[in-house]
Amino acid sequence: MSDLDAFRAEIRAWLEENCPAEMREPARDEDDVCWGGRNFKFKNEAQKLWMERCAAKGYTVPEWPKPYGGAGLDPAQAKVWREEMNRIGARPPLSSFGIWMLGPALLKFGTEEQKVHYLNQIARGEIRWCQGYSEPGSGSDLVSLQTFGEDKGDHWVVNGSKIWTSYANKADWIFCLVRTDKANKYQGISFLLFDMTSPGVSTKPILLISGNSPFCETFFDNVTVPKHQIVGELNRGWDVAKYLLGHEREMISGAGGNDRLNTIGAFAKRNGLEDPILRAELAMFDVDALAFTAMGEKFLDEIKVGKAHPAQPNMMKYAGTEINKRRHELLMAAGGSAALEWESESSNGGSKARNWLRTKANSIEGGTSEVMLNVISKRILDLPGA
Amino acid sequence: MPLYHTEDQAMLADTARQFMADEGNIAKQLRHYRDINCKDGFGHGLWKQFAELGFTGILVAEADGGLGMGHVEAGIVLEEVGRNLTPSPFLTSSVMAATALGQASDELKGRYLPGLLAGDSVFAVAIDEGPKHRPERIACRAERAGNGFRLSGAKSFVVQGGSADMLVVAARTAGSDEDDAGITLFAVPKDAAGLSLENARLVDSSQAAHVKLDGVQLDADAVIGEVDGGRDVLNRVIRAGRVGAAAESVGVAQGSFDMTTTYLKQRKQFGKLIGEFQALQHRAAHLYSELEIARATVIKAQQLLDTGSEKADLMVSVAKAKAGKAAGLAVKEGVQMHGGIGMTDEYDIGLYMKRDRALAEFMGDLYYHADRVAKLSGY
Predict the structure, then answer these.
(1) Which of A269, A295, B42, B352 has the least CB density, counted as fewest CB within 10 Å?
(2) Does the distance separating the beta carbons of B293 and A291 come in below 8 Å?
(3) Hey, is A40 helix, strand or coil?
(4) Which conformational region is residue A199 in: left (phi greater than 0), alpha (psi within -120 to 50 degrees), or beta?
């Protein structure tokens, strides 16, 4: 038995023993997701147990080094972990912007002290992070952001506002892009971390077409941020921001997701599938969805050993979000009028319609599809003037 | 197993890329043999060179004198074949027929494999009986007669049939036309009495034959595998052909895409390089994305086949469908973005469009495989 086979057997046995049955069903919506944080209410005991058991072994962040709360798995072992999780349909024990976005940025740009402090908190689900990037006047043109941090010696005083801040009203801390030099566009931004309970921070949820409010407006009114809470160098936060965006785009793309979720034809058939044209559309979709699953696997394999193009997350984000929007369009068509139910018990609170509407943000948040195509043209295809 | 090439596979890819660009390129091979109206549609000299590099034996077991490699390696060669539109009997002989012969008796192996390994022989595989790929339906009959079998029926669009020294023929020894069971595979030599072929040159200048089997008498030792139990071997042959065609499609798509992006960086209109226009940039970027995804499906399917996974069959159909879709887009965008010169015979981009069309049809098109994906997924 090879080392990897032995490792697989070990993981399989550990999962069998430790993953509660309730956690072996796909999450139906964002309410089923374990986000962690100071104020997080576990949906049930199984969810809490699953997160804690994984955190104790470093499996909430399997690839992070052990001193930072991870399990220190190499790329091949991490792939085995994902495969074994997928095999039993296990939910991620903990999902958070700390894991997907801030963590990788800290691993690359953080000081040793920052890594030990913040990464362990993230791995144990103690602190829930939100992302302060977009502003009312700075959407696709993110680098034009105006939120300003005034230098006061040992701290900055931050004023301004952010928008589309996911779960800002539920987050404990924020990683935030702040202008620290008004004369320099790209090299005048710093990447700051601060507590959302700091005096002067307020949030206001935005009601979306889905009827839910996952995004907020976030306001900063003379917020004090100590100087040691900067990641990377002063005025070089754009480098951190771009690196983190790569990870955000990877996350939104859905790469490495459970392949059971990717074919929808069989799912649609449960409600009867009498229309041959719809069946054909579903089949064409399932070809693309299964193909994208293979792409996700290839992308993760390659990026972990440095074989992927550095701009490849942009392609993944573009393709993955367009697929997801198409998936929900077809689920609505297959569901018929039942999928229109907005407030009813049988519809789980209108989850089909609300999820469908939620996916429309996929190709906007974290960089629009059009911006992704621009980046591919410029950085991968090297097209002129792009 | 990670979804990228090992070091050995990367070395093979370098060798294949260099060789095909130098020797298998469009001017030396496709245009040359097309323009001299060659009845085989490919060069036997190049086929000998394939053998010298070991390519012809990639899927032949080491015990049988081959390299004992897998579909990933065969696909590496096929991608370069696709990129250069290199006409060769590699897919029908070294991928499909070799897969069939791998399951044959030592006697049949001894009769046919040395010629394949040396690049002296060409083989074809005769499965379909109409203009669409429908291997579920086999009406061609083989009846027991004397010491062996007598074959009667017809096969359509047998690629390389006209130049083949031997045809692997799928015939029915039991049951009715649509039955899964009752299939037997035969190795039919080109000079067998009652075998007649009518050549057809296809849109991409490849040669396919309409084959008539009019009471072709064969000895019992011409059977590949088990009598009545040939469906399993046939399915292996078909999967090898499908994933091979998908790999070739990726090469066609990549070749077409590279030509097109190069053109976008050279051609000026309105005082600008046309690649500066966002309308074209976004289409090129979308195409890049589709091509990357197609490439991932192909290596995934190859690896699943090589490891004998039960998921291989589904992924092979996904790969054939997706690679065909991506390549179809690549050649259509290629011709459109080249403008008027894309319509000329002098320019190569149109040759990519023709080859894509033939490959898309070969071993089942997008619609056939999407339907298969649905059936295999339970709807």
Answers:
(1) A269
(2) yes
(3) coil
(4) beta
Q: Which chain A residues have a beta carbon less than 8 Å from that of B265?
A: 382-384
Burial status of residue A31 (CB atoms within 10 A of its CB: 0-12, 13-18, 19 or more): exposed
Residue A157, domain extent: 129-235
Residues B103, B229: contact at Cβ < 8 Å? Answer: no
A:B CB pairs within 8 Å: 142
**CB spacing of A315 vs B373 below 8 angstroms:** no
Q: Which of A327, A288, A314, A296 is nearest to A369 (CA)?
A: A314
What stretch of H or E contains B244?
helix B231-264
Model-level pTM?
0.95
| Structural domain count, chain A | 3
Chain A nearest C-alpha distance from B59 (Å): 24
The per-residue pLDDT string of chain B (379 residues; one tens digit each, 9 = 90 and over) reads 899 999 999 999 999 999 999 999 999 999 999 999 999 999 999 999 999 999 999 999 999 999 999 999 999 999 999 999 999 999 999 999 999 999 999 999 999 999 999 999 999 999 999 999 999 999 999 999 999 999 999 999 999 999 999 999 999 999 999 999 999 999 999 999 999 999 999 999 999 999 999 999 999 999 999 999 999 999 999 999 999 999 999 999 999 999 999 999 999 999 999 999 999 999 999 999 999 999 999 999 999 999 999 999 999 999 999 999 999 999 999 999 999 999 999 999 999 999 999 999 999 999 999 999 999 999 9
pLDDT tens-digit profile of A303-325?
Answer: 989 999 999 999 999 999 999 99
Rounded-to-integer distance, Cα B316 and Cα B343, Å: 33
Pick the CATH number of B232-376 from 1.20.140.10, 3.10.129.10, 3.40.50.720, 1.10.530.10: 1.20.140.10
Q: Final residue of a domain: which of A186, A202, A235?
A: A235
DSSP state of A92: P
User: Coil, strand or helix: which one is A118?
Assistant: helix
Q: Which of B3, B264, B278 sits opposite A301 (nearest CB)?
A: B3
CATH class of B125-227: mainly beta
For residue A213, what are the CA distances in angstroms to A1, A128, A161, A216, B160? 51, 17, 18, 7, 63
Same domain, A278 and A225: no
CB contact under 8 A, A374 and B318: no
Of the candidates B315, B325, B379, the beta carbon closest to that of A266 is on B379
Instruction: Assess whether A231 and A263 both reside in one domain.
Output: no
Q: Name residue, tokens 């791995």.
A: A123
Measure in Å the smallest separation between the Cα of A61 and chain B Cα atoms: 20
Of A145, A98, A142, A146, the C-alpha closest to A121 is A98
Superfamily of domain B7-122 in CATH is Acyl-CoA dehydrogenase/oxidase, N-terminal domain (1.10.540.10)
DSSP secondary structure, B29-77, as one string: IIIHHHHTT-SSSS-HHHHHHHHHTTGGGTTS-GGGTS----HHHHHHH
Q: Same domain for A188 and A138?
A: yes
- Same domain for A227 and A312, yes or no, is no
Coil, helix or strand at residue A343: coil
Q: What ipTM describes this predicted complex?
A: 0.96
**Which residues in chain A have their CB less than 8 angstroms from residue B371's CB?**
280, 283
Q: What residue spans of chain A are helical by DSSP H?
A: 3-18, 45-57, 75-87, 97, 103-109, 112-114, 120-123, 237-253, 265-269, 276-304, 312-335, 351-359, 369-375
Domain boundaries, chain B: 7-122, 125-227, 232-376
Of B285, B299, B370, the CB nearest to A287: B370
